[in-house]
């Protein structure tokens, strides 16, 4: 555009006409503001805190829109604009030279020019000559000068500095717009602060005569059509992508410990999980009262071998099956403690000294023999006396389940030995349910084998959420994102540079997690299926996690918001993906909802790949892939929608 002649004769660099801006449709920050900045001039705005200076500058930069009025800039290309934000907004982990190179790359400057410029600006702005100084180690003033240096690094034609100096603004309008010296002269003041005070007093008198807040509602529908601010509508550029990618690598190297922590976090989680779950409890204390034998352990231990020498059903037999059962339970790593009376043993359970109490009646073995011998004519009191009365502390469901399983196994093993010695078929003693060889999995499938795939998918999902969210929020929180976006960086370039680094992370992490989980060298969980399919399913889950991290960062105002959001969703996923309990047991509607989440059916698919040996051709595995991959367009569109609707998403 050749000059902006609203009314002035001068060619204007910036013109604002009748600008109105409100954040809440009630209070106006800008109220019909007019402003003209001639070319080749330094124009300063002075005004109290909160009067709207930053708001105005945002509208000039096209980062905020006016409710009404018009902004026209003569220079609209990003490369023609320099901007220094109010706060320092620097990547403080980088060195001075890295920071200059980063912005140089962003503006497509060659390395030699960057070096020359850096040398000149460091000298000109009296900054430390050692360019390898980390920005964080500079003083506050030096950091501000570095910030200024970056805003003029690419020789902009229009420089916008958000730092109040001269120019007089109050209550959303300009009180005066003149050369400072002329203003001082006209008002007869020595300092601009005095001039400002005098203008405010005059404004106060006018305000008393007429309330200056007019009814502006009629203005709002007009919007700010016709504004011509900075043109951010540039295509994806490789040099900005390279700048962001290189900067991310520098940041990762600088925060090496954190980087390594994020990299190994899945391995730590999976190893901890594998070591902490699934194994049988050892030395679980169990009380017993054995009325079949006199009170004392030692009697029993000498007699328990008799089971192989004599049939317990012989009338003259001195086999004591209670002793065999106690011996077998001991070999199953239960810590058996004998009590003299039932009362004493019960008290031990109540005090939680033991987890269960086993009570063998007098002549337990004889009664058991009679029970099998008498068949249908057996008396009730014989049945009672042939029982092992078992009292369990059911407050811990997993431990009580463990004790019951050990009891049943012990009964089966001892009765098999006893019946074998009697030359009888041991199946007489069994329940009339026979568990044949499992179709999938093994008899020894443990809780760990069940939860393992959930752990794998949750880790594959959540580490990218954490990392992506944290990276984006870090730049957003410090105003860095806003600054680089004003310098022309596009979200697609930020996302792509992050994506490339994150892909390396997830490729390594998922490979390592699978090795840890399934190889004999480490935890050797059962795995029958296709390694490649499993690996690609994990990559798909991680990809969705990464996108979810982007969406969380776009929606959150601060790192705290993002952390709450992330943790909340983590719990939701954990409970709904079937990690704690099979989804089949869920409330019906919740179950349907859970199937639409990105990792629920994928976790089921991982479980089937591991224990059933299915492959990609099986409909359940395809469904696992489908529900996960479906989230890629959903989250992609959500991110695009948020960015379109929330113009200040990067603030
Ligand atoms: N995103 C926002 N949402 C709601 N209100 C806002 C927003 N940004 C600014 N405001 C309000 O608009 C008014 C002007 O704020 P602005 O930041 O433009 O002032 P300023 O003149 O730059 O102040 P300072 O000199 O303290 O930086 C303030 O009352 C502020 O609280």
TrEMBL record:
Domain (ABC transporter) ranges: 14-242
InterPro entries: AAA+_ATPase, ABC2_TM, ABC_transporter-like_ATP-bd, ABC_transporter-like_CS, P-loop_NTPase
Pfam families the UniProt entry points to: ABC2_membrane_3 (PF12698), ABC_tran (PF00005)
Transmembrane segments: 455-474, 495-523, 535-555, 562-582, 621-643
Subcellular location: Membrane
GO cellular component: membrane
Keywords: ATP-binding, Membrane, Nucleotide-binding, Transmembrane, Transmembrane helix
Alphabetized SUPFAM superfamilies for the sequence: P-loop containing nucleoside triphosphate hydrolases
Protein name: ATP-binding cassette transporter
Species, as recorded: Diaphorina citri (Asian citrus psyllid)
